[in-house]
Amino acid sequence: MRLYAGTSTEFIHLNKRNLMAGQMQEAFLQKLGRTPSPQEVMSWRNSLNRMADVLQTSGFEHQGVMVEYQLPTNSQRLDCLVFGHDESGKSNAVIIELKQWERAELSAYDSDKVLTWVAGGNREVLHPAVQVGGYCNYLRQNLTAFYEGEAIGLEACSYLHNYSFDPADPLFDPRFKTYTDEYPVYTLQDYDALSNYLIKRVGEGEDVPIMKKVESSRYRPSPKLMKQVSQVIRKKLKGELNVIGVNEDYILLDEQVIAYDTVLSLVKRGLGSHEKHAVIIQGGPGTGKSVIALKLLADLHAMGKNAQYAT
């Protein structure tokens, strides 16, 4: 499911005439059965207009653009995807996570989160590169368009269009370098760099066939992923669990990572005090509760803890 799909020319046209947010509101109501929040509408007006500026500067006319694409069997939506070919003729897609952030601080948690102002308060959230990298890996492992036959190449980046760059800023702390090297973060000053990044990957255009291939693609975990997961579960049943690569086997996204880290932090800090803790993770079918539990099972065993899983 997505709220918008069209050519880069159409996308630029709608934003320049301030029509995009209204069209998104109508699609939201039609497909999700409710009206979007004022904050979400405002984010569309601000962020999508900035994205349109970048695409126009890049000279894009025949690229495909998809907005608010919902991940299969998951409630998370991707802000923007751009489809096209590179200079060699390879079909590619780029995920772009759009943020209105103006500042961030280091988190007290491990090396994948920052503290920033979100939804009326300072909150622990995933670093943009970690967040968009999770989306990228999820699609690579679960959507046939990205791993079957002449697979579409997939890369990802973040665009923080209100964020002033400072090399000493917490957002660019060395602890995030592994993520930002693979999934770059572009700020207010990086307008041209983002344009060049997109031109290199999707600059040759041809929008509709690639975008339609993704839209019609089936959700089916890749054979490689299923083999890895099967091996992990079999080893657990035999009492031989080897958790090397478990972080790659189980892809956690957004709130799933927050829930996972909450439990892991309690284990790391709380078991020595002999206090008892209960963490209830709520969510409807398909929100990833079992995935969180299985990843915790594997990682706690890797820490030498006696962890049990029951269904």
Keywords:
11 helices, globular, 311 residues, 6-stranded mixed β-sheet, alpha+beta
Would you give an account of this structure?
The chain is an alpha+beta fold and about 300 residues long. The protein has two domains: about 1-215, no CATH class; about 225-300, no CATH class. About 40% of the residues lie in helices and about 20% in strands. The chain contains eleven helices and nine strands. The protein has helices spanning about 10-15, 20-30, 40-55, 130-140, 175-180, 190-200, 210-215, 225-235, 245-250, 255-270, 290-300, and strands at about 1-5, 65-70, 75-85, 90-100, 105, 115-120, 120-125, 155-160, 185. Helix 1 (about 10-15) crosses helix 3, helix 2 packs across helix 3 and helix 10 (about 255-270) runs parallel beside helix 11.
